[in-house]
Design goal:
By secondary structure, the chain is α/β, with parallel strands linked by helices. The chain has a single domain, classed as TIM Barrel, CATH 3.20.20.70. The chain has twelve helices and eight strands. The chain has helices at about 15-30, 45-55, 85-90, 100-105, 110-120, 135-140, 140-155, 160-165, 185-200, 205-210, 220-225, 245-250, and strands spanning about 5-10, 40-45, 65, 95, 125-130, 165-170, 210-215, 235. The protein has an eight-stranded parallel barrel with strand order 1-2-3-4-5-6-7-8, surrounded by five helices. Helix 7 crosses helix 9 (about 185-200). About 40% of the residues are buried. Bound molecules: 1,3-dihydroxyacetonephosphate (13P). 1,3-dihydroxyacetonephosphate binds near residues 10, 170, 236, 237 and 238.
């Protein structure tokens, strides 16, 4: 089955509002000839730039995502952002469980699960990130870790919800290191994820769900990754911060 590819840019803690406006204008320019029927393009700016980026994306096919959120609608949670707030500024998607959230900010499979439920309650499509560290890979724990992240993260979601969400496999050792997983290494895990979904959730969900690869995706390696049967796109960090390289990734990934 052919799934529609998605190329998503996770800007992390980069881009002031002014820089974000320039970047998104550049991305719109770079991708103006790309048929939106062939690929979904998404950007995830930092919170402070969401509004400005949203205004520029209005009426364009480029999708907007938050990089994280709290699971409550509102309350005394200093420093947090709620799903309602993301919706209000025009987000359709939200990244949940990025390894940097897990590593530095205490995100667990349990909080990931709460956030996934909250995203669905508010009509946001979650992009759930899973992936192993170098230590875990070397100890042959890759599949155990991924399975645990999926099982605990997706707990209690309906098959319909799982079918509509997006997954991202991001091996931690490949993030920001310039060290991409080879297409074969990534495909091995993507195939494992799809098999797990087939067995634990539903055959249709397993077929329909898009699984993006993230970790040092660049214009030079996107083509090889996209030839793999179970890789449906990329979640791009560093190379999404320049309109030119992000545009190249979109075009070469087609
Ligand atoms: P890099 O592309 O900079 O390795 O980051 C990947 C990532 O974490 C995207 O979410």
């Amino acid at each position: 089955m052919k799934r529609k590819p998605m190329i998503a840019g996770n800007w992390k803690m980069h881009m002031t509002t002014k820089e974000a406006r320039d970047l998104v204008s550049g991305i719109l320019q770079q991708t103006k000839d790309v048929d939106p029927g062939n690929v979904d393009i998404l950007v995830a700016p930092p919170y402070t730039a969401l509004m400005a980026v949203s205004e520029l994306l209005n009426g364009t096919p480029i999708l907007l995502a938050g990089q994280n959120m709290h699971w409550e609608e509102k309350g005394a949670f200093t420093g947090e952002i709620s799903p309602v707030m993301l919706k209000e500024v025009g987000c359709s998607h939200v990244i949940i469980g990025h390894s940097e959230r897990r590593q530095y900010f205490g995100e667990t499979n349990e909080t990931v699960n709460k956030k996934l439920h909250a995203a669905f309650s508010h009509g946001l499509t979650p992009i759930l990130c899973v992936g192993e560290s170098l230590e875990q890979r070397e100890a042959n724990q890759t599949f155990t870790i991924i399975e645990e992240e999926l099982k605990e993260g997706l707990n209690g979601l309906t098959t319909k919800q799982v079918r509509s969400m997006i997954l991202a496999y991001e091996p931690i050792w490949a993030i920001g290191t310039g060290k991409t997983a080879s297409p074969e290494q990534a495909e091995e895990v993507h195939a494992f994820i799809r098999k797990w979904l087939r067995e634990q959730v539903e055959k249709e969900a397993a077929e329909e769900i898009r699984i993006l690869y993230g970790g040092s995706v660049k214009p030079e390696n996107i083509e090889g990754l996209m030839t793999m049967e179970n890789i449906d796109g990329g979640l791009v960090g560093g190379a999404s911060l320049k309109a030119d390289s992000f545009g190249q990734i979109v075009k070469r990934g087609l």
